[in-house]
Specification:
By secondary structure, this protein is α/β, with parallel strands linked by helices.
Length: 440
């Protein structure tokens, strides 16, 4: 178990922040509640201390603290101005800033009036809505933070990777604790699938009762503070029904990796009596359902992925998919089960691709589908995800869509049981866990 006072370096994110040090844009770190944004700010403060920045040049405010809970833009402006040291560059850290009404007025004033470097976190995409981005004249840069990758999960929970040469020189990986207790790699990965990658999970010792209590707390915070309370602060009345919101969350969680439409959700909710029929044709309000889905996307609880027609080279408007930010939260909501584990693997691969900086879409190839198209600059990868490649029927199902793509970009299948074949007609077959541990 990791001590609650221990700060573990999230190197990829910290390096991004350091790369923007002393540049004009406001650095805005976004992501679901409790994914590590506050800790990242603390890591950046530590970095400044180590590089010679005096403590009095750093102003830190966490708006989750009671002392700041009623602070408005005017009070924030006065608080910071009173602490500015004349002739010194100031470093301003504002944690969970979306809780401050009209925060953009104060931040814009700091940019215009002070010699300063500003770092902000927010748990809702409304923080970066077009209205606010325009107000800041586009002078902000977003760093999107996600829960822990599998590699980070190992680090945070005190596991170490050991490699040894097996038969025929094949390198095999094993996992052990700091005191040398060995674990199978798949055994620890099953824990990652089960409990997810929230950094606070390390404090539970991966004990189920404690893990579920943590996930319950995170879920309640996201739903109450980042959705229901936010709507009240904005003066909106679209997201008011907590029962309906939970039902939509359960539907999306139960259907990760499936093609989903707002109309389908609306019809199901009408049948269950949670949504009224509207209009002359007696159809459920797609507008209502979409408003709730948008609120979940804005809170970073779910992510939407669009479909891309590989041959037509265009995005399609119909039947996208949703993935949940953390598999632990899904298991908390639905219970532990194995019947849709392949979609859980897809969920993990999708977020790993985002961590590695790819733009990700679903691939449509005629009537077939490729799980992911991962694009970055001038490169592209086509990726299928499956539990096993050992059966001939499975091989044909996974390889068929990739074979129908005629360009020369990399194609691969990721699985937990890849078999002995390293490739099929130029299509790579990789062990999913090896790919996750590559980190690149």
């Amino acid at each position: 178990m990791i001590s609650t006072n221990t700060l573990i370096n999230r190197k990829n994110y910290l390096d991004k922040l350091i790369g923007f040090r002393d540049t004009e844009p406001v650095k805005i770190i976004t992501g679901i509640r409790r994914c590590g944004k506050s800790s990242l700010l603390k890591l950046m403060v530590q970095y400044f201390h180590k590089t010679g920045v005096a403590a009095e040049q750093i102003i830190e405010i966490n708006f989750e603290y009671y002392a700041f809970k009623d602070m408005n833009a005017d009070a924030l402006y006065r608080y910071v101005k009173e602490r500015v040291i004349p002739g010194k560059r100031m470093y301003i850290f504002l944690d969970e800033l979306q809780r401050v009404p009209a925060w953009e007025d104060a931040v814009n004033a700091f940019r215009a009036e002070l010699d300063c470097d500003i770092y902000v976190t927010g748990s809702n995409a409304y923080l970066l809505s077009s209205e606010y981005s325009t107000y800041l004249s586009g002078r902000c840069v977003e760093i999107k933070m996600l829960p822990l990758s599998f590699r980070e999960f190992l680090l945070f929970n005190g596991f170490q990777i050991k490699e040894r040469a097996g038969v025929a020189g094949i390198i095999k990986k094993r996992i052990c604790t700091a005191d040398g207790e060995p674990y199978e790699l798949r055994e620890v990965f099953d824990l990652y699938m089960r409990y997810g990658g929230m950094p606070g999970m390390a404090e539970t010792g991966l004990v189920q009762e404690k893990a579920m209590a943590l996930l319950d707390s995170i879920y309640s915070t996201v739903v109450v503070r980042d959705i229901l309370e936010r709507e009240k602060r904005r003066g909106q009345k679209q997201i008011t029904d907590a029962v309906l919101l939970r039902k939509i969350i359960l539907f999306l969680a139960d259907n990760i990796g499936n093609n989903v439409s707002v109309t389908t959700m609306g019809n199901i909710l009408v049948n269950e009596g949670l949504l009224q029929m509207q209009g002359r044709k007696g159809r459920p309000s797609a507008h209502t359902v979409q408003a709730y889905v948008n609120a979940l996307l804005e809170s970073y609880f779910f992510y939407e992925i669009k479909r891309f027609d590989v041959k037509g080279k265009q995005y399609l408007r119909t039947l996208g998919k949703y993935y949940v930010a953390d598999t632990g939260l899904r298991n908390y909501l639905l219970g532990f089960r194995n019947r849709d584990s392949e979609h859980v693997l897809e969920n993990i691969v999708y977020f790993e691709l985002l961590r590695r900086g790819y733009d990700v879409a679903i691939g449509k190839v005629d009537a077939e589908e490729v799980d992911f198209i991962a694009a970055k600059a001038d490169s592209r990868k086509y990726i299928q995800v499956t539990e096993s490649m050992l059966g001939p029927d499975v091989k044909e199902r996974e390889l068929g869509p990739l074979r129908n793509i005629r360009d020369n970009y990399e194609k691969m299948v990721l699985s937990l049981e890849p078999g002995l074949d390293a490739s099929y007609d130029g299509i790579k077959s990789l062990h999913l866990l090896d790919w996750l541990l590559e980190g690149g």
